[in-house]
Design brief:
190 residues; Butyryl-CoA Dehydrogenase, subunit A, domain 3; mainly alpha; flat
Amino acid sequence: MEGFERGRNLDKMGLKAQDTAELSFDNVIVPKANLLGEEGSGFISLMVNLPQERISIAVIAVAAIEHVLDMCPAYAKEREAFGRPIGKFQNTRFVLAEMATEAHIARVFVNDCVLKLNAGEVDTSLAAMAKWWTTELQKRVVDAGVQLHGGYGYMSEYPISKAYVDSRIQTIYGGTTEIQKEIIGRMLGL
C-alpha cells in the first residue's frame, strides 16, 4: 500500500531466526475490503486475544524448559570433572532434579490452561499467571543449565548459550512480568 515502508532489520541479542524490523505507515489508506473487524475496534480485538497470546508464550516457555532438560542430563553424563562425570556429583543431581520437577509442574499447569482456553473458560488472570510464571521459570532453568555447563555454557557454540539469550525476551513480550502481576493483583480486587 502507498505510504507503507519497511525499514532496517533490528539487531537483537537473541531469536536471530526471527526478523524484527522497523515498519512505517505514513497516511496508508486501507480499503474497506481489507478491514478486519469493525472500524475503531482494533484495540478491543487485541485485548480480547491477549489471554490466548499469553498462554501461547507459556507453551513456548515450557517447550524451551523441556529442551534444556533434555540437554543437561546428557551433558552431565559426558562431561567429566575430578575424574568422573559431573552427573555423579550430588549437587548436579539435585539441580537436575529441581529442573525436572519444575518442568513437570509447568507442563501440568500449562496443559490445564490450554484445556480451559479450548473450552472458552480461560480468564485474563489465569493467562497472566501462566505467562509470568513459566517465562520466569524458563529464565531460571536455562540459567541453571548454563551454570551446569560451566565455561562451555558461555560459549556460543553450545546450544545452552543460544537457549540463554533466546529466553530473555520471554518475560518482556506479551506484557512484562510486572504487568502480569499487576493484572493478577487487580483480579484479586487489590
